[in-house]
């Protein structure tokens, strides 16, 4: 199996055994008929696949979200939408190819679609900057969203980025300001907005097109303030602790839905969206149309009010008194800090 992930090895081994049996049936035992043995292996493959993909860890879901065969924005523009007409440029600096956007139809509804786009090979990844946009990408997205708001067209965004590009050029052209302006403007647009995380949802780079009336996420996608590797490097000083970080960050679709940070989880075929892209695209289309119909009956004032309340409700936590053990740990840490300060040499 090409692009095999570590946890998929048991399935691959069974598939190799099945292929070998079909090519060289004479080399296998005749105690069981050829057809019966094939049926047994096929059943074992199905059972193993269900067992593995029904019990994925957060880190394994991150790996699926990054699978090189996973459908990207352009794939969904082909299979979920129709009559897509791409628009280019931010009218200020350049055309950032990490963002794809333009007019399209979702069912019978005219919409504006904007999404981050990765490449399939090295050449395309360089063209698309690995899906990490520069400031001009966010300004292009904002230009298209303002156009949609002007003409009363719903906005659909597809998020699949490890994050905005952090290079010197991006900083010189004010990447943080570009994302901040998008956040502000998206809160005030009167048309319906639906954002969907289709792969990676990394940091402010994802949030720059993620302020929406409805935030959806594909089953094997993730949405996080930082990548698991980045979190591991900061907290454990070791990027190999990414699996531990993924668990702690609560970044999977299930965790995000429980925390009410996303509105709906869109199911994927067993094994991930890349195993049946057309089926995934059809499911996405149905879910988007359903949410768009619900938003369409609201007045602009009602949508704006609910959008504001939605994001204001994020990040609420309940506090409790520390346990005796926690109090002792806090006291011990405080005492140790005091001792270090007391014994440190004075600086002139």
Describe this structure in words.
This protein is of the alpha/beta class and 348 residues long. The protein has two domains: 6-55; 63-312, Alpha-Beta Complex (2-enoyl-CoA Hydratase, Chain A, domain 1), CATH 3.90.226.10. Helices cover 50% and strands 14% of the residues. The chain has 15 helices and eight strands. It has helices spanning 9-23, 34-53, 58-65, 73-79, 122-128, 135-151, 168-172, 175-188, 203-207, 228-235, 242-249, 253-258, 277-296, 300-312, 324-343, and strands at residues 82-86, 99-106, 109-116, 155-161, 193-202, 214-218, 222-224, 264-266. Strands 1, 2, 3, 4, 5, 6, 7 and 8 form an eight-stranded mixed beta sheet that branches. α9 links the parallel β5 (193-202) and β6. α6 (135-151) runs parallel beside α8 and α10 (228-235) packs across α11. The longest helix has 20 residues, at 34-53. The radius of gyration is 24 Å and the shape is globular.
Outline:
With 348 residues, this protein is of the alpha/beta class. The chain is built from 15 helices and eight strands. It is globular and about 70 Å long.
Write out key terms for the chains shown.
globular; 15 helices; 2-enoyl-CoA Hydratase, Chain A, domain 1; 50% helix; 348 residues; 2 domains; alpha/beta
| Helix and strand run | HHHHEEEHHEHHEHEEHHHEHHH
* Total DSSP helices: 15
Characterize the largest beta sheet: strand count, sense, and whether it forms a barrel: 8 strands, mixed
User: Mean pLDDT, rounded to whole units?
Assistant: 88
Q: Indicate the percent of residues in helices.
A: 40-55%
What are the segments in which pLDDT stays under 50 over at least 5 consecutive residues?
Answer: none
How would you sum up the global shape?
A: globular
Tell me the strand percentage band.
5-15%
Q: In whole angstroms, how far apart are the ends? A: 65 Å
Rg estimate, integer Å: 24 Å
- Total number of strands: 8
Please, how many domains?
2
What is the second-level CATH architecture of the largest domain?
A: Alpha-Beta Complex
CATH homologous superfamily annotation of the largest domain = 2-enoyl-CoA Hydratase, Chain A, domain 1
CATH topology of the largest domain: 2-enoyl-CoA Hydratase, Chain A, domain 1
CATH class of the largest domain: Alpha Beta
Structural class of the helix and strand makeup? alpha/beta
């Amino acid at each position: 199996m090409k692009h095999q992930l570590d946890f998929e090895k048991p399935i691959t081994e069974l598939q190799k055994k099945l292929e070998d049996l079909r090519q060289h049936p004479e080399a296998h035992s005749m105690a069981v008929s050829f057809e019966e043995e094939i049926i047994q292996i096929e059943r074992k493959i199905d059972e193993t696949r269900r067992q593995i993909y029904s019990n994925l860890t957060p880190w394994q879901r991150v790996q699926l979200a990054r699978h090189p065969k996973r459908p990207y924005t352009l794939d969904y523009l082909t299979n979920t939408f129709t009559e897509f007409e791409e628009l280019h440029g931010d009218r200020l600096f350049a055309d950032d190819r990490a963002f794809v956007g333009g007019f399209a139809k979702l069912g019978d509804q005219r919409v504006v679609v904007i999404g981050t786009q990765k490449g399939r090979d090295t050449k395309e990844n360089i063209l698309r900057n690995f899906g990490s946009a520069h400031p001009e990408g966010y300004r292009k997205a904002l230009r298209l969203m303002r156009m949609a708001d002007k003409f009363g067209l719903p906005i659909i965004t597809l998020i699949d980025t490890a994050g905005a590009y952090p290079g010197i050029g991006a900083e010189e052209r004010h990447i943080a300001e570009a994302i901040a302006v998008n956040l502000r403007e998206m809160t005030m647009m009167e048309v319906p907005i639906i954002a969907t995380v289709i792969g990676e949802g990394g940091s402010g780079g994802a949030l720059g097109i993620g302020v929406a009336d409805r935030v959806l996420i594909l089953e094997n996608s993730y949405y996080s303030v930082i990548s698991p590797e980045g979190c591991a490097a900061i907290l454990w000083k070791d990027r190999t602790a990414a699996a531990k970080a993924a668990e702690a960050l609560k970044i999977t679709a299930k965790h995000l839905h429980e925390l009410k940070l996303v509105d709906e989880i869109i199911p994927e075929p067993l094994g991930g969206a890349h195993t049946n892209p057309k089926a995934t695209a059809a499911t996405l289309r149905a879910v988007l149309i359903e949410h768009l119909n619900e938003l369409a009956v609201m007045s602009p004032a009602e949508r704006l009010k609910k959008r504001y309340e939605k994001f204001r409700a994020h990040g609420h936590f309940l506090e409790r008194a520390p346990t005796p053990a926690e109090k002792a740990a806090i006291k011990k840490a405080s005492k140790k800090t005091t001792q270090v300060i007391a014994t440190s040499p004075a600086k002139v």
